[in-house]
């Protein structure tokens, strides 16, 4: 366990000090395809393993698990993703400021593209994977 503490400290100190921002940008660019591949693989695996059909659209529980209408509970839980806005605005401060990157960051990394993928696409995947 002490070895893993040391590993975490050794990679955390340079991150806390700063100075490796360009490296992290390149590293994140390399990791994104793995994320997309993993997401697709998990969805396909879930569909194959659980024989997923469109039954999730009409599923009714045997007994209600929450007080009040289910749509209100689902709305409240799902809109909890709005906390991402605060974190996203905070991370946007570190975005590159040259002309090309500002446009890309505004549209995809910190703008509508991010929210579309995070809330809509992941919400559809999550609700269909039950």
Radius of gyration: 20 Å
* Number of DSSP strand runs: 0
CA-CA gap between termini: 36 Å
Q: Give helix and strand order, one letter per element, not per position.
A: HHHHHH
Which range does the strand content fall in?
A: under 5%
Helix content: over 70%
Overall mean confidence score, pLDDT? 76
Summarize the structure.
With 130 residues, the protein is mostly helical.
Write the layout of secondary structure elements.
Blueprint: H1 2-17, H2 21-50, H3 70-78, H4 83-92, H5 99-109, H6 112-128
Labels describing this entry:
single chain, 130 residues, mainly alpha, 6 helices, transmembrane
What does this protein look like?
This is Lycopene cyclase domain-containing protein. This protein is an all-alpha fold and 130 residues long. It has helices at residues 2-17, 21-50, 70-78, 83-92, 99-109, 112-128. The longest helix has 30 residues, at 21-50. The chain starts with a helix and ends with a helix. The model has no long low-confidence stretch (mean pLDDT 76).
């Amino acid at each position: 366990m002490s070895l893993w503490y040391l590993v975490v400290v050794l990679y955390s100190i340079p991150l806390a000090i700063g100075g490796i921002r360009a490296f992290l940008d390149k590293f994140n660019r390399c990791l994104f395809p793995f994320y997309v591949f993993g997401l697709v693989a998990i969805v396909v695996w879930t569909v194959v393993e659980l024989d997923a059909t469109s039954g999730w659209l009409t599923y009714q529980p045997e007994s209600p698990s929450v007080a009040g209408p289910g749509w209100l509970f689902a709305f409240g839980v799902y809109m909890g993703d709005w906390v991402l806005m605060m974190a996203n605005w905070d991370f946007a401060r570190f975005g590159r400021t040259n002309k090309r990157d500002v446009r890309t960051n505004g549209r995809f990394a910190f703008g509508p593209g991010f929210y579309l993928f995070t809330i809509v696409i992941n919400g559809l995947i999550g609700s269909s994977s039950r």
